[in-house]
Amino acid sequence: MLTIRINSLFFFFCIVLSIGVYAQDFGFGFDDDAGEAASGLPVSVKIGGEISVELAGYVYDFSSREKMKDASLGDIVSGALNFSAAGANADAYIVLDLSASSFKDLINYNPGNSVYTPIILDEAYLRAFFGPVNIEAGLRKLTWGKADSLGPLDVINPLDYTDLRKMDDLQAIKITRPLVHVSWNTGDFSKLEAVFIPNFAGNRYAREGRWMPSQFKDYQGMIKSELMNQARGNGNWNPSELDVLLKLSPVLETRLFDYYQDILGGSLTRGLEYFQTGLRFTGTVGSSDIGVQYFYGNLFRPDFTGTGIDAFLSELKSKIDFDPLSPSLGNVDLSILSPLKYTRYHQIGFDYAQVLFSFNIRAEFAVHLTEDMKGRDGSTRNPFLAWSLGFDRDIVWGMNANVQCNETIRLMNDGVGNNPLFDCEAGTRITFTRMTVKLSKKFLKDEFECKVITLWGIEDRDCYIIPSVTWNIRDITAELSSGVFAGRESGEFGQFWNNSFVRLGMKYTF
Hints:
Elements: H1 2-21, H2 32-38, E1 44-58, H3 65-68, E2 77-86, E3 90-97, H4 100-108, E4 121-130, E5 133-140, E6 160-161, H5 170-173, E7 177-187, E8 190-197, E9 204-205, H6 214-233, H7 239-264, E10 276-285, E11 288-298, E12 303-304, H8 309-319, E13 340-341, E14 344-356, E15 359-370, E16 384-394, E17 400-410, E18 431-443, E19 448-457, E20 462-473, E21 476-487, E22 501-509
Parallel strand pairs: 6-9
Antiparallel strand pairs: 1-2, 1-22, 2-3, 3-4, 4-5, 5-7, 7-8, 8-10, 10-11, 11-14, 12-13, 14-15, 15-16, 16-17, 17-18, 18-19, 19-20, 20-21, 21-22
Helix pairs in contact: 6-7
């Protein structure tokens, strides 16, 4: 698999070089004279990248000698390579992620079980120019909306949450997607865009280890407990059969875990059935930048329900081997038990940006219409509203403040049930609000920067604070940073209270 994947990269790079070498013969026939003039232009082929050395440790791992036995300082060395070739009417671009974790994902990559792109190929796309129209195709990270941090209109790329130490760099945690993107400059200050994504991948979460969300662990425990309770309450299971089921429960839990691993990896969403598409128009009215967009796709976060427990118990009983000496679960269909679903939705959104009284203001608003318009389908999320409002401004002593508030508001809340096994939104609040605050100050001709980023969950009453000191000396960047998780342990950030870290790194860009 490694050889096949590297050969694919080599083949793609050959295409890039071919575009550069033969760019002078490449034309679209719109203007013969212009094509002849362009044929004499030199071809630009560039190679760049970066290499980083980083030491990172989790504070809690060094709290005792016993914990230090399993402590590590991370991958230490990582890097990236950028290849680009530009001709008269087209260009191509490839970014390779050369971190140790990326090579691990590359070796373990199985295209039959996942729609995720191996992370080693961070981006790879071709772009052709037809006058005011640009067409891009390939693996791409594309940003829609005007928010500085993740806003409700930035719906093209899922996010990688397998390591929350990277949360301060939104572009780094975006997962590249195969897509076709067309943009048409309809005027001096207006543009129309269209995007088509042939399949779907949700957010990526750690499925084991320190960054695995507690929600996944809790759900597996709830499913196992409910199975045993219903089996005991079902007169069709006699005491000896219940004993066998109890004995096999660890095996069942393992099978459940493997099943969730598979579907979270994207095995259910790789076909055209899960295509996504959207339109976006941006323009300028007076001193304001505005945008409007429509998007049809899937929410990036999966929803679990246990609606099939009764049917699964019947299936299990017909296939289980009740031999007391060597019981076996048999070839039971786990998809009957707990379907995983990515909610399909239509989004209509608006955004706005303007400078008012020295404040750079940005706002987004979106309506999300799902299939559960009455709010009573527990396997599908209710329709909801989402908005963000933010600004940045220089404040006292040359310090810059960048503040953004994001919120979602669930509609038809009266239809939400109270059992999380049968309603994916049960037990969750009607609103979810998060503040992102960044304070920064530069010194020594902007070479030295002190910065602190705070992510604050209002309803969860938890936070994630990332202070850092950065020194840029020409092509070298040195950084000392840390991350602190605090607040309620049931919150999205608070649950990682023992993952606070300190990081020291240096990066060379070429």
